[in-house]
Target: DNA sliding clamp PCNA
Amino acid sequence: MLELRLVQGSLLKKVVEAVRDVVHNANLYCSSSGFSLQFIDSSHVALVSILLRPEGFEHYRCDRNISMGINLNNMSKILRCAGNDDIITVRAEDGTACLNLMFESPTQDKISDFEMNLMDIKSEHLEIKEKYNAIVKMPSADFYRICRDLSSIGDIVTISVTKEGLKFSSTTGDIGAASRQNNVVDKPEEATVIKMDEPVSSKFALRYLKSFTKATPLSNTVTISLSKKLPIEVEYKIAEIGYVRFYLAPKIEDEVDDTEPKD
Model:
């Protein structure tokens, strides 16, 4: 038996909206350590990892480890029926072929029930343990604007971390080229904090990074971790109860990639 009650139901809506354009079908895992999702996109370029810990729920019951295959677009359609202040309860019986979602208004005068069919999805849970050469923490709204602005100029961005700071540079497109450098500022809430063992510079597809920024409403800050020739990690912490992490493989010279997430 699985039963999860989330008082801040809008949080689940934001999480699903943040990842559904990167990964369409995925397995939701539930265990004593939390409610999680991990899956690689169809092009095997990006990976999404989500964790919501038990302490983030008003009620958390998971009698045994369970895996449920879901279509995130379908789940998004159902969650849009919930009000932003609604309490969301997620239930699944052992051996069931569907997931039950119940939405309650704060005064409990309105209750809506939905059932979503589950899918059989084969996937492998990956352990990601990498030592990063540089870790950058910056305002998530700033990262969103950078990805949005540079994607209108070019397709590829070079992210460089040096002792001078953090720099985003787009490749030359039909319009021209652009770059953005973040330096030290006096206001802590606007600061870009860098921890670096050695300088790093890697190229990434802007269309993916722009898609990752749909998680901006989840956190005021974003943590970007880089290592040479390894996937970038883009993490949005959800208060103290969990996170949404995106991983993206670096671009290789003369690489051709025709896949593209939706805007």
User: Anything to note?
Assistant: Residues 99 and 116 are 5 Å apart (CA to CA). The radius of gyration is 20 Å. The chain has a mean pLDDT of 87.
